[in-house]
Structures are given as structure tokens and as C-alpha cells.
Amino acid sequence: MERSRFLFDGPEDAALTLVLAHGAGAPMNAPFMNVVARGVARGGVRVARFEFPYMHARRQRGSRGAPDRGPVLEEAWAEAIAHLGGGERLVIGGKSLGGRIASMVADRAGVRGLVCLGYPFHPPGKPERLRTKHLEDLRTPALIVQGTRDTFGGREEVAGYRLSRAIRFAWIEDGDHSFKPRASSGRTESQNLDEAIARVQEFLSALAPPED
């Protein structure tokens, strides 16, 4: 994976790099990804973004195509981690699909942590199709930032799941899958995104390796 396939924010000499992959339908420079990456980077973290092969192909050809199959997505993550120097100083994650695939490779990649932004616990309207089996025994310290009314898994649903003790949650009040609240909640999308960024920064600060 060439360096040109990445977007970088934050200081090059940061002690920790957060690597983010996009969701199923939007690229690495979608508005949500831009806001989160740049916001986290302002806290002194290096943030790297990359695209899965199908999304890169969309960008090159200007046509739409379905997401790659699981093994291809996992291999893309492995290549990104290797390109960025291995897992010791990396925290991996991303939006929805990007975070889910990161959670599937985190333990074997030996990364420092995992950040999932809107985890797709199940397809909307299909709570029986859970994507949590591998999360039961996850060893990598993880933060899942989730809207309380996310149709892919809201607060009340998730409370009943069997999940590893390595996982902690940051619940974004009245947020949907991208943390956007209803106008009637009295909250704004900007407030919710700022809160999500702050919680990610706190998590990363606790994981940062000691200075050399």
C-alpha cells in the first residue's frame, strides 16, 4: 500500500498514531471522517486514513461497487498496519464497517488499542443478525463510541450483549449512527461530534507509550 493512499493529520513525531478506515458507503475524506480525524489530531495525535480496495477503485473509476469480501478487507488492514510500522504505536479503528473489520484484526496485529465510531452490531431492523462473536474474547483495549439511538445497536440493546471487559463505551446522547441528534433533543450535531472527539482523545491519552 503506497503512502499516497493515506491521508495524514497531526504531528509526524507524535507518540501514537490512530489509523482510521471509512464506513461502507463513504470515502476516507467524507465530512464525518474529516471532522473526527482533524479533531483528534488537534490533541497531538497523528491520524492516518486509508481506503479499502473497493472504495479506492470507486475513486479511480468514478463508478460504484459493492464492498469487498471480508478477507480482502482484513488484508487491507494488515497492509495498512505494516506500512505504518506495525502495531506497537498504532491504535486502529474507524467508522462502522472500518471499525468492525479493525476489531477483527486487532488482537493478531498486536495493536495498542481499538476505536470504533458507530459499531454496526447488527443490520438495521435485524437484531438477530449479531456481529459480536469475536468481541466476546477481544483482548485489545477498545473504545466504542456509539449513539444512544443508533439503529445498528442502541444503548438498551447493547446492554444485553456479552462483550469482552476490554471494551468500554462512550455513549453519545440522542446520536444516530453518525452521532447526529434529533432537533427536539436540544443537542446539535457539532456538540455530539465534539463530545465523541473528546472521548477518543481521552482514551488515546491513556494508551500513549512513555516518551523515549
Please characterize this protein's 3D structure.
The chain has about 210 residues and is an alpha/beta fold. The protein has a single domain, classed as Rossmann fold. About 35% of the residues lie in helices and about 15% in strands. Strands 1-3-2-4-5-6-7 form a 7-stranded mixed sheet, sandwiched between helices. Strand 2, helix 1 and strand 3 form a beta-alpha-beta unit. Helix 1 crosses helix 6 and helix 3 crosses helix 4. The longest helix has 19 residues. It is globular, with a radius of gyration of 16 Å. The mean pLDDT is about 95.
In terms of topology, how is this protein built?
Elements: E1 7-9, E2 17-21, H1 31-41, E3 46-50, H2 53-61, H3 70-83, E4 90-95, H4 97-109, E5 113-117, E6 142-147, H5 155-158, E7 167-172, H6 189-207
Parallel strand pairs: 2-3, 2-4, 4-5, 5-6, 6-7
Antiparallel strand pairs: 1-3
